[in-house]
Amino acid sequence: MPHALPDVRTQVSAEEWQARVDLAAAYRLVANFRWDDLVFTHISARVPGTHHFLINPYGFLFEEITASSLVKVDLDGRKVMASPYEINPAGFTIHSAIHAAREDAQCVMHTHSLNGVAVSAQKGGVLPISQQSTLVLSSLAYHDYEGIALREDEKARLVRDFGDKNFLMLRNHGLLTVGVSPADAFLAMYVFEAACTIQVRAQAGGGELVHVAQPILDGVQAAAKQVTRGLGGALAWPGLLRRLDRIDPSYRE
């Protein structure tokens, strides 16, 4: 890790500390599943009860993120708590737009995974060829590529294109999910990434692809709630944290 930061646990509320631990866990999991892109891309989470947000310090690998190292910023990306680190301005352009527009987007997760970018470059986008894809297609939006996200005027178009969906395919760029928690955003990204990986492999096989029928697509959201017992990402989250704790529990520091 670039620097050993002091434990900020005593400086924040219990609710914020839990949000920090969960967000740090999400970063470690993205690294563990190999969806990370060196120090690029981001996961952000709202500090409960505030309009402040936690995001990664620019220059840290995802496998190095800890609860204490996360940077707390406002909607303009200005630090509201002392930190020796800055944040990536391109990353927060996307995240701040979504956080500002949607109260339900407590966590925003963005990746540049190889399979995700590959499908984002396909004109047809996500195809209904797997169970995973049906879950994505039930709440999927697209946003056309406008270059590295630095322009303020792109925010309005991004928010317009995303609407009230949970999955966003950034054309020629990557994948984005939102959730009421890091657990929900992570589960959504797991399904999104799986759908893209399956699609790339199925296309590589060269055979004719079988599409899922529309009546099945229409009923998938109700079925998904039943499968997760209405818990969403919280169903798998404790097990994922146990996995991280076996590998390296330092994300909790």
Provide a descriptive summary of the structure in words.
This protein is of the alpha+beta class. It has a single domain (9-252), classed as Class II aldolase/adducin N-terminal domain (L-fuculose-1-phosphate Aldolase). 40% of the residues lie in helices and 11% in strands. The protein has nine helices and seven strands, in the order αβββαβααβαββαααα. It has helices spanning 14-32, 89-101, 114-120, 131-137, 154-162, 182-204, 214-218, 220-227, 237-247; strands spanning 43-46, 53-55, 71-73, 107-111, 140-143, 167-170, 174-179. A seven-stranded mixed sheet has the order 3-2-1-4-7-6-5, with helices on both faces. Helix 3 crosses helix 6 (182-204) and helix 4 crosses helix 6. The longest helix has 23 residues, at 182-204. The radius of gyration is 18 Å and the shape is globular.
Strand order of the largest sheet: 3-2-1-4-7-6-5
CATH superfamily: Class II aldolase/adducin N-terminal domain
The helix tally amounts to 9
CATH topology: L-fuculose-1-phosphate Aldolase
**DSSP strand tally:** 7
CATH class: Alpha Beta
Q: Give a short account of the largest sheet.
A: 7 strands, mixed
- H and E string: HEEEHEHHEHEEHHHH
- What is the domain tally? 1
Q: Which of globular, elongated, flat, extended, rod-shaped describes the shape?
A: globular
Low-confidence spans: none
Which structural class best describes the helix and strand composition? alpha+beta
Residues in helix, %: 40-55%
CATH architecture: 3-Layer(aba) Sandwich
* Whole-number mean pLDDT: 93
Beta fraction of the residues? Answer: 5-15%
Distance between the termini: 12 Å
Using only C-alpha atoms, the radius of gyration works out to 18 Å
